[in-house]
UniProtKB/TrEMBL annotation:
This is Arrestin-like N-terminal domain-containing protein. Residues 458-478 have a biased composition (Low complexity). Residues 1-52, 449-478 are annotated as: Disordered.
Amino acid sequence: MVETLAVTHKSHVSPTTEVEHPPRAAACQSTPMSAASLPGYPAPPSQIHSPTYTAAPQAHEYRLALNARLRPNRPPREFVKQTKNGGVSLRLVGQDDQASLPVYGLGAFVQGTVDINKTEGITSVEVQIEGTLKLEEVAEGGAATHKLCLSKSILWVKDRTQDAPCPNSLRFNLTLPATFSDGDKTYPLPPSYEAHLSGLPGFRANINYSVSAFAVKPNDVQNLVKSTLFRKDDWAVTTPFLYHPRTRPSVPIPTPLSANPSLGGFDDTPQWKVFSSTVIPNRRGVQDVSVKLHLPATRIFCVRQPIPFHLSFHSTAESLAAFIAVAPVAGILSPKRQFTRIQLMRQTTVDVRNAMVLGTKTDIWRVDCIGEGAFRFSGDGADWAAFSGDIFIGDHITIGGFKAGGFSTRDYLVLNINPPDLLKSPFKELRMVVPIRLATDPWNEDGSGLGGYGGQYGPPSISSSEELEAAPELHYQR
């Protein structure tokens, strides 16, 4: 297998500089020459020198590819959390020392050391990882708590036969699980998340993870290991951490479509899926308007990239002329001036009891707009009009949808056509909903060089067969 290493190359040779090379002597020539007869060599310009190399690209450069296994060795960074008296320090390696919290990805190793300042009287030292999902329905009286993960490791136990002192530093290595079970189903381990819905009814939902270290120091405890039961005399340090499993699309965003006058709209290609609907007229003499929304076939997008789309309308010339009043307007306008909008919506649902009342589920949900589309005019004809655009996702969105027990988030693209006055408008309103999935990272041909926490990728948390009509899975790397 051939491994390649991308190296940043910087050359300071001016593109207009010409270097004169001396003529080469014939190979068979053997006539001796004096120093005075030697050809002259011009001094090279001062700006020409050996090219320099850097491990990371500069501001004006970019990386084409990178094999992660061949990255230069960098000094390890640590996230440190101490007790108030400084007696116990929890050091987590492989973290950004400037970050407010540690961050881990799919199946990550939580590695580090437990440092103890004064070891006299300590009988055992242990470390643990814990994750919890807490759901509470406000006014409905329901609550549920799920243990997402609980991994413990005893680092040292006092041997009374040898009476050896506790080491001042103990290493540990714990692995985050990839899944969890609520007793009924098994789900991928959900990311750190928090959501709430104010009012009645309402809900609060939290997914939290933490890593803790305990130095047990009982006064008069006879047993060898008292573990974490004796908090009064223990030295304990705990830090929450963020669990952000990384995902990415398995294919790139396809090439944009172009409006084709001969076809009366956009071309149909396998890389783009068409979602069709109809705007119903509100009065006689007006024909239906056919609506076609083109989206990338996978419907899997990176949260840091705009979502492209194409939208076309088809009807008679008379009906399209009447439809102009509510048709898209190029650019980003305030909602009051845009009667056709395409938005990215996130639905967060909490279902504590998992019950049915009169055939209706008792879950509670909220819906938030997390992205807004901007339109560009693409072309038109006697019986059609076409627009293209991008949906820009809010900077606060960092993870995609997931499902964990009675808590889930799902993302949808929603196309709305809302006439300003339904009584006077020649058309009724339209609402088209298309489920999609968001990934944390963009598509990458070889999947390397993304850096960050763990460098591992996870499969989708929502079944693609249920939500996305067997759309391709998110690419993952173990």
